[in-house]
Amino acid sequence: MDRPSPAPAAAPAAEPSAAIAPARWWRVWWRSLSPTRQDRLAALAPLAAVLMFLAAIVVAFWYLRVEEGEREQEALRRDVEYAQQRVRLRLLERQEQIMRIARDLSNQDMERSDFVTRAEGLISQYPELQAITWIDDRRRIRASHAAPTLPSGQLRVAGEVLRSGDAADTFGLARDLQQPVYAQPLAAPGNGEAPPLLQLQVPLVAQGRFTGVVLAEYSVDSLLRYGTPTEVLARYAVTMLDGHDQLLAGTPLPPRGRASPWQPWATRANQYEVFVSPVGNGLVLRAQAYRTSLGVVGSGLFWLVGTLSAMTAWMLIANWRHTRRRLRTQEALVAETNFRRAMENSMVTGMRALDMNGRMTYVNAAFCQMTGWSTEELIGQSPPYTYWPDPDHDVLHSKLRDELSGKQTVGGFQVRVKRKNGTLFDARLYVSPLIDAHGQQTGWMTSMTDITEPNRVREQLTASHERFTIVLESLDASVSVAPLGSEELLFANKLYRQWFGSQTSGHLQLVAQAGVLPANPSRAESMDDEDALMGLPTDTLTSARSENAEIYLPDLGKWLEVRSRYLNWVDGRIAQMVIATDITPRRQAEEQAARQAERAQSVSRLITMGEMASSVAHELNQPLTAISNYCSGMVSRIKNQQITEEALLSALEKTAHQAQRAGQIIQRIRAFVKKSEPNRTLADVQHMVSEAVELADMELRRHNVRLTHYVAARLPPVMADTILIEQVLINLMKNGAESIQHAGRPPARRSVELRVVPRPLEGQDGIEFAVQDTGRGLAPEVLEHLFEAFFSTKQEGMGIGLNLCRSIVESHQGRMQAENIYNGPEVTGCRFSFWLPLAQPADDTTNSVAKASSPRTPA
What we know:
Largest sheet: 5 strands, antiparallel
Number of strands: 26
Structural class: alpha+beta
Strand content: 15-25%
Radius of gyration: 48 Å
Low-confidence stretches: 1-20, 188-192, 259-266, 519-536, 843-859
Helix content: 40-55%
Mean pLDDT: 78
Oligomer: single chain
């Protein structure tokens, strides 16, 4: 609320003598009139004032009504364009999702069942989608899925041929243009007819050849309902029309009647329409304002305003004489003075007023609190002031002379101020001239702000920046920062300058070779003066996790681990920070460890075959003995001429079979023991388990242990090195047999069971291999160190078997564990199991990339 200024209250006392003459003339003229005329004029004056007041009210009401109409029309236009943008974005989002389905169909990455599943998900998620249909190049429907609300007359059945009409015409247009084409609805629904559907046909192009389209049909009513913002629907009657102004969706307002005399401002409904892209001119969005005139309520409001205006005029006339009373003016002046004093005392900025000679005439409460002196002690002081520090008198005298002479500093000036207790603080002073009611300068007003804390914070920030720079310069990693879309280098530490110099080429080389987002834009973008990344969602980009990669730089002869992250630079630009760490010693150590692991695997296989030597000899002795017996029998019977040709052929066939059996045993053992590089291929689980069981069965029979195995049917393949996985299985089965032998179990309880079944782990499909024996199990202290290198419970063991098994499994991205089997409190055996993930379609590519970018994990 505006308060009267104190200056007008003192104006009558200073009124010039020239203004007295008109007042005297008016009094003389008024006294010359008769009392009757005086009464008539006194009665007409309030009436004229009331009429002028009412006229002003009417004109103001008319002007406000016209301005309100213009504002309503402008608001309607903005809301309709905003709703059109929302509908357009919704159409573009659905178009992008349909194009993804079309791209997958073109690349033959999607089957019919996958198409139906994807279509069902989109239709259930977005209510405006009514049907999605896959049509081949012969216009035959391959697959289709529709919403439950779609009428049966608009359903498309697989196997049918696309009939002539709008859809067929749009099919030909999409085939010719090879671009997404919208089919615009041409007619509004009639009585009992199904509502028209907006069609989008996306062509399918495989290797430059047209193979069909994906047809998406939208409900115009659902598009209007869910695409238009709710606040727009609440304020306007929103409809969608076709190119012929026929209603497609929504309910328009009924036409308004003729304006009545009691509604002089009633007008037709405000409306605005705009075409909906990307459909084109065939789909129009129209909005009509629910209320564009005052109506009965507004007219009543007008008359109410008129009545109130008349009452206000009467009140003005009644209070006209009282407004001239001096008491009201004095009370207003006191209230205004108190208000201004309270406002000045509530400020934290110190205020000081000086006259033209530098004498202090006013200080506020904040100035007294800052300096510690009271108002009585400060008012009337002349320089030097008591709050001036003694060493700064000359400097402050000079600044005061500049202040009094009118030399003002735009940003103020900084000084030191002494408190009453002797302490000092930093302050910034701002000076402005004091002008009285007659436009004459009477002094200077100075505002003082305590800047001790900002100065302290600024010094701490400067020291912190220096410490931060020292830390970055002493890092043993290269750190560089460059803005996206520019070849400017914003920051580079000491190691970066040693490796690449002070140019951006090293930063760009690291970014390009590591495969992260390139820091330099295209040539077309570089030629543009505007920011090429304008509009990019920086919150999502800068909050993302950092990207890591390991690369080799031939120029430096080093392996580098490159970490990249995006950040907002101090000037608002998006910058990319790259940290490169020298990992050459680590890579060399990993390669050496890999070679040692390969030699350990070969040694482990030789040790395993050495332990199985007696079983191998027994296994080979059977076919060799059979061959010897067959040969001896044939020789004796030939000498006695007691053998026929058929018997001789049968004996020779049996001899050859036994020789093949011995050769297969030798070949299998030779392949197992042979040293080779890891070769991960798609491996059949059934064949791999059969090979391992056949090799391990010889060792288990030597220990008089029965081996049973179960492999689930139709197991998918795994990406594995079959020799290494067979080595793990043989080692686990051999350990189980030795555990049973040491436990001294009776024949009925001497068994080892191998089970291979599918089992998901952490949301990933895989296969579990489990070997269970009937030994004494493992002690708790043994379970804690079971898989550690060189830890063994055997007197003659070296402690590398289970450690190698676990390394082999983990190199295949698998997991391995061991646990005891209990029957109540009694341990009845031990169970070793490991899990391997299923082969993925992109495994070959992933493996090749992994071998090129990271050291091979030792088995």
